[in-house]
Amino acid sequence: MKLKKSISAAGVAALLASSLLTGCSPKEETESKHDKTTITLSGWGGNPIEKKLLLDVLSDFEKSHPNIDVKFNQINDQYMDVIKTRLIGGTAADVFYLDAFEAPGLIQTGAIEPLDKYVDKDFDIGDFEKQQLDAFKENGKIYGFPKDYSTLALFYNKKKFKEAGISEPPRTWEELRADAKKLTKGNKVYGLGVMPQIERLYYMAESQGGQVITKDHATFAQNRVVRSFQPFLEMHLKDKTAAQPSEVGSGSGGEMFGQGRAAMVMEGNWNIPFMKDTFPKVDYGTAELPTINGKKGTMSFTVGYVMNAESKHKKASWELIQYLTGKEGMKKWTSKGFALPTRKSVAAELGYDKDQLRGPLVKGAKYATVWQDGPMLPIIMNNFNNQFLSAYLGERPLNEALKDAEKQANKEIKVTE
User: Which Gene3D superfamilies match (predicted)?
Assistant: First the structure.
């Protein structure tokens, strides 16, 4: 079995692959009907309300599965580094969160258990949003089930729109650019708040038919990708109608929007509870992102539950994953609106598909580009973002910046092959 190294930590992944191949997996311990089995779930920290909600869901699971206790292990910093180190040392949790962005690299080490053999027809795989589920597939096998997701939508300030004489949110990028000019007031208020990062702009990069990645190598310096970004850069450098949060002293796009420094931003579901808690007086709406070249597009970010291939309690671990990503567990987890359910039936039951603010986010799931494109994406992201920012700031031409970034990315990729 040939394993590739995980690009985000090549040395760690190599050690992982080595340790997993040098011997057989430990035999699963016998789980008596009368003895309780304790399994561990690792995840990162959220806000206090989210953590309480998760603990409530885990408590419900334990009540319905009296032979299983779940210990939640919260990792606050350097999440993936900690997970990989624990996998190497044989101390990783039985079940843990895995971002789709990191999934391909870790799956290829053999550290994650394929889940197909555990699934029965009652689990209803067809109920998941296809793009979110596919993010955890490799060679036809399912290695995780998505617990939640968010797409990007256009958040717009209704008061500022009314003052500018704009009756509805823009439907095309051309309309957005024209509206941004009307909404901009010098350097006090920008029409559009932006995040010049590939994770937010990937769908835009391919809008002219170009490819950011081809066969696990960076190809984002091609002319089609460069042309795709020109309108985005021109809004900042030529029109002076777009700015990133740091340019106005804000820490995020949501904060920039809430402070009134941007009339529009492209943000995810996370911005809705943030606005409610931090800027409750701002009257705003959401809409699907404007089309580019007549095509709808957005990004989608998802996280799944996966099983440690070395877990000694695989049956109990699957029962936990099955509950958390099943209809009952997912409904409770997403009921407060902090995240969107990856099951279509749950989204419909909770009314998110018709919700005034979340509806556009749910609609985007059907055509969104999931933030994942193979095991080399972390290397490509780092190099792209470093050089793209210099072009966004007007320090150098975009084509030159991306050529240098592509060259460096492929140099680093070659080292991992």
Answer: Periplasmic binding protein-like II
* CATH code, 151-299+373-416: 3.40.190.10
Q: Is 76 helix (H, G, I), strand (E, B) or coil?
A: coil
Q: What is the DSSP letter of 189?
A: B
Domain 18-150+300-370 grouped into CATH 3.20.20.70: no
> Is-contact 411 2, C-beta < 8 A?
no
CA 34 to centroid of chain Cα atoms: 40
Helix ranges (H only) for 192-250 are 198-205, 223-237
Beta strands in 36-144 (DSSP E): 37-44, 68-75, 95-99, 137-138, 141-142
Interatomic CA distance for residues 16 and 49, integer angstroms: 35
Taking the mean position of all CA atoms in its chain, how far away is CA 194?
17
**pLDDT tens-place values along the chain, 417 residues long:** 333 333 334 444 444 544 444 444 444 444 445 589 999 999 997 778 888 999 999 999 999 999 999 999 999 999 999 999 999 999 999 999 999 999 999 999 999 999 999 999 899 999 999 999 999 999 999 999 999 999 999 999 999 999 999 999 999 999 999 999 999 999 999 999 999 999 999 999 999 999 999 999 999 999 999 999 999 999 999 999 999 999 999 999 999 999 999 999 999 999 999 999 999 999 999 999 999 999 999 999 999 999 999 999 999 999 999 999 999 999 999 998 989 999 999 999 999 999 999 999 999 999 999 999 999 999 999 999 999 999 999 999 999 999 999 999 999 999 887
Q: How many Å apart are CA 72 and CA 363, to the nearest integer?
A: 33
Cα–Cα nearest to 400, from 412, 390, 414, 415: 390
Is the entire prediction scored with pTM above 0.70?
yes
Which tokens is 294 given?
């007549």
Handedness of CA 125, 320, 96, 15 (dihedral sign): negative
CB 303 within 8 A of CB 148: yes
How many CA atoms within 13 Å lie on the side-chain side of 307? 26
- Tell me 169's DSSP state: -
Query: What DSSP assignment string belongs to 18-36?
Result: HHHHSSPPPPPPP--SSSP
3-state secondary structure of 171: coil
Residue 395's Cβ-count burial label (10 Å; 0-12, 13-18, 19+) is exposed
Identify the CA nearest to 66 among candidates 39, 96, 37, 95: 37
